[in-house]
Amino acid sequence: MTAYPAAGRQLKSALTSCASALDTAATKLETAHTTVSGLHEAAATAASEYRRTHSDATQTDIDNHVRQQLDDPVTKAGQAITTATNALTTAKTALDGKLGEEGFGFFKGIRQPGGADFLPGDHPIDWEKTAGYSPTSLASANAPADPGSGPGAGGGGGGGGGAGAPSSYGNTPAPKPQVVEWIKEAIQVIKSPEMAAILRKRGLDVSDLDPNDPQDIERIWTIIHHESGGNPNAINNWDINAKNGVPSQGLMQTIPPTFNAHALPGYGQIREPVDNIIAGVLYTYSRYGNLAGHPGIASMAGGGGYKPY
After folding, report:
1. 135, part of any domain
2. Residue 114 resides in a domain
């Protein structure tokens, strides 16, 4: 049954990627339409006025006048069209990647109901434990990981988001290697000498953060998993923040005011994975003191469910 949530998350991520690409393409098309329409209207007006004051003007004269007045409108229109065309190509590539190659086939690999549990009478059970499964605990999270295992190594089911060794926190699946890299990079930025003075000014003590600490990576991933499912473009459009015009966004689902208050210089793009992790982690330290104090982490460490921050 654990295959269904993983497939559902993959489907959600694919749909979000397609929707984001289509939204971007639509925005570029609208911009191109507005640009070209505006240039056409301005060119027509400039040409009409020039004809009115230059009755003997040739078409070449008129074209040159319009080009000078509007700073080469044909080139500007062409650039707008090229930008829109590129956005459409990007959207098509995204859709082909999900619909053409994968075909939203995230549930195809799940075996159909059958076997002993679905047949009348007594039959031998043919269940087999998932390969690579080895329960972990909070106490073992700090232990050195074997090569190719654990949340930092991307082993087991890390690439698929759920088939590998489980997290110490409930049923949180292992993170994808790319997410681990984002987390490590974010911690490295936070711990860099260039940011030390800024953190001191904010009164933050992040001395316990370590990009090579499996527990830090696991805690941040647990927050990311429950907040966004690992999707950098995730946007919450239905809660009170969204109704107030500040929807939570990105991997750690920060609202823009909170993101802006806790972002670091040079890392101010809310849906950039590393930038969002930085702001989310620093917000956690600012409000709860450390990662362990995050309500979701604290609850799950005590055997409860995840609680948002």
Report:
1. no
2. no
Asked, for residue 222, whether it belongs to a domain, the answer is yes
Q: What is the mean pLDDT of each run of 10 residues along the chain (309 residues)?
A: 64 76 85 87 89 91 89 87 89 74 57 50 48 40 35 30 43 89 96 95 96 95 94 90 91 96 95 97 97 95 89
Are 155 and 242 members of one domain? yes
The CA-atom distances, in angstroms, between 26 and each of 81, 103, 270, 296 are 13, 23, 21, 37
- Position 162 scores a pLDDT of 33
* Predicted pLDDT at 165: 39
**Distance from C-alpha of 153 to C-alpha of 141, rounded to nearest angstrom:** 13
Contact 43, 73 (CB under 8 A): yes
Structure tokens that stand for 220 in this block: 């941040």
**Residues 160 and 275 occupy one common structural domain:** yes
CATH code at 246? 1.10.530
Buried b (16+ CB within 10 A) or exposed e, 6-44: bbebbbebbebbbebbbeebeebbeebeebbeebeeebe
- DSSP letter (8 states) at residue 121: S
Supply φ then ψ for residue 198, to 5 degrees.
Answer: -65, -45
> Beta-carbon neighbour count of residue 161 at 10 Å?
21
Q: 298: closest CA among 219, 184, 196, 229?
A: 219
Q: pTM for this structure?
A: 0.49
pLDDT at 200 (0 to 100): 95
User: Are residues 127 and 112 in contact, defined by beta-carbon separation less than 8 angstroms?
Assistant: no
